[in-house]
Amino acid sequence: MQLVVTFFHRTIGPLVFLSYPEVELEEDIIKKLLRFFDLEIGEDFIEITIINQHKKVINLYFDLPSEWARGKKEEVMLSLIMKEEYNSRLIYSFLIDTVHKIRSRENVFKAFYKDDDNVDNDIEIDISYEAIKRILFSCLTKLIKRLEANNEIKREVL
Q1: Which residues fall within 8 angstroms of residue 50, CB to CB, at 6 or more apart?
Q2: pLDDT digits (tens, 9 = 90+) for 63-120
């Protein structure tokens, strides 16, 4: 299971920004995430099944207020990549909660300028980046525990 943050970089376009755990994503998954990001279907929550890889990719689009971005907002997508069946409502709630935690962090938009040469060295960039990493770790850890607990309940009922 992986949690991935993709955002719209002002000069490059869609870019995979961060993933937890910090393992290299498969190239075809990266390409799919970038294509999902570019879809203009008017939905915030999208579930995709990649049948030949036995993976599910659940995406939630959101905006972050930003003092530095064009239009004063960063366009971001949070994706969960899973190999197992899941309860859509549970995963949707998880993604909404994770987004809420990211949004509630003051100046979190600065994290997206970590490798931007056009921005002066601002300590808040690194602090915000590390904050997002901690949020991803914390939220994904809680989700895994919740899914494990749900599986235990299902086994007991069967």
Answers
A1: 29, 32, 56, 57
A2: 999 999 889 999 999 999 998 777 888 899 999 999 999 999 999 999 999 888 777 7
Rounded to the nearest angstrom, the gap between the alpha carbon of residue 6 and the centroid of all alpha carbons in its chain is: 6
The model's pTM: 0.87
| 3-state class (DSSP) for residue 130 | helix
In eight-state DSSP terms, residue 24 is: P
Which residue from 149, 7, 16, 147 is spatially nearest to 83, judged by alpha carbons?
Answer: 147
Give the count of domains, the chain.
1
**CATH code of the domain covering residue 56:** 3.30.450
Domain that holds residue 28: 2-157
Strand ordering across the sheet containing 13-20: 13-20, 2-9, 73-82, 55-65, 45-50
